[in-house]
Fold:
Amino acid sequence: MFPELNNLLNTTPDRAEQGKLTLLCDAKTDGSFLVHHFLSFYLRANCKVCFVALIQSFSHYNIVGQKLGVSLTTARERGQLVLLEGLKSSVDVFFRAQEEPHPLQFLREANAETLQPLYEFVQEALKPVDSEEAVWRYPVLLVDDLSVLLSLGVGAVAVLDFVHYCRATVCWKLKGSMVALVHDTGDAEDEENDILLNGLSHQSHLILRAEGLVTGFCRDVHGQLTILWRRPLQPTAQREQSLTYQYKIQDKNVSFFARGMSPAVL
Amino acid sequence: MAAVETCGTGAGGTGFMAAATSKNNVTGFQRKGPRAGGTDSSGSRLVSIAGTRPSVRNGQLLVSTGLPALDQLLGGGLAVGTVLLIEEDKYNIYSPLLFKYFLAEGIISRHTLLVASAKEDPADILQELPAPFLDDNCKKEFDEDTCNHKTPEPNIEMKIAWRYQLLPKMEAGPVSSSRFGHYYDVSKRIPQELLEASKWHGFFLPEKLSLSLKVEHCSLTHGYLKLLNFIQSIIYEEGFDGSNPQKKQKNILRIGIQNLGSPLWGDDICCTENCNNSHSLTKFLYVLRGLLRTSLSACVITVPSHLIQNKAVIARVTNLSDTVVGLESFIGSEKETNPLYKDYHGLIHIRQIPRLNNLTCDVSDVKDLGFKLKRKQFTIEH
Structure:
């Protein structure tokens, strides 16, 4: 987790809010550093995390996680982290016939109508186990990322249904939180992706949007992050609040600064 | 803690775990620990494979693309387990060259090759590979001791004109596998004995399609499905994914797929904007990447992206690949007469570089890169 981002979001692992859907969005840049942030943040906050990792392999997240101070293998062994590794499982699903429905069953189907097996996997992973004591604070679902599901033949509506079901279970019933990453394709006219993005933007409480700089590539400023708070939980708070910062990604940390205030410029 | 230690000793890397549970860690990627190194290090558990080296930045195992200038732009080379997507130039003149460089490098480094094409017979493609530059004195010798041969090849004019001018003059030593990245002479063909000594598998779509007409599940185009099954069977049978632990010498599988997405593969994304099988290519890429991540292989794919009319598909294909390089040739375009581009045949765009095991990635500072094909070589310049 990046301490500066925690300050900007005004949270710490101890005081993290529950029942929230956070949307991570990236346009013309790679927003995966946000995924690493939230993964390590919730692991540090002692939450039970179900991570649907569709884009990269487990070792990738593990190695970056170690740089950020959490060990995914330890978390997995302790039962704190349940991980679905998309790339590895896709090979299993695709080449070997499965007896029972696999979470990635839609890979074998021509037109995947529903993501129900995936939802059931999440439900199974995060349901409170009676035998163990209440060690973990609350469950968290993290998905990286949802846009790839569109590339794999799932319709935008099916993905939105999946998110809705997960929200109902994770956020409302189990009082946990949910974080998902969606790519914003911008001018690529990807209608399905736009439907997904707009639908999720309306439902989320917090939107973090990483964009490349309008002026192009820069060595010292890698992009711009816009934080948008929607649906505040307290009715007395402001309606919507939006802040924009620029960031630079380093080896173990991401530094944030106000627009135009990069250390390289000053 | 015990768990952290097991992470440190060679189990790191982007997802290198065999699909079947195997006791020994067949890792394609090795954390750059105190014992890891490019040369044979007796202490490390993974014997170093010929023609590879670990990345300086994050300990990834890299293979050369066959073009040292491109290696440098990609941060040292192509990471094992990843896909390099080459967006073809309009008339498909220069992208086959990059494709052949990749395959030739595999032959010189004694990697196993898998060549797939719907247009040309893989045997013909292999016949046309460029020959490596060899120093005349050392042509007969095949010993590994290359460090003594410091005679630079005089007619190599590798001009890399930005400030990394201190690219060392590579010794064009004997054809030994301990070097990383070789130079090739495009005007000559690869010697026949090298081809015969190499191990390769070919996938020529017209041959494979005629064998069976059984319609399979899922929405993949028939050609893609056959190719995926072929790749998976080669990986499994030859033990690239660690499933045959008795294999004594680990090797890399270099996969080259030509013109993926063209109508010759049975896919219609290049034909219409609203196609029926719009997910065929993307699903193929996803499962291919899954196969690559769990095996010691690297893949180069050329895609005629200028023919794909649906921009969303191009964006999705880019997101699903690790490294994306685009070639834009000046033939027939207005840039041909532009004096700025007088010496070059085209531009090369590095569109995407993966962030593997890292928050950052090796983005080169130089963004305007042109290429030109001289009589003997393909060079990339600033």
Q: What stands out?
A: Residues 1-46, 136-177 of chain B have pLDDT under 50 and may be disordered. Chain B touches chain A through 49 residues (CB under 8 Å).
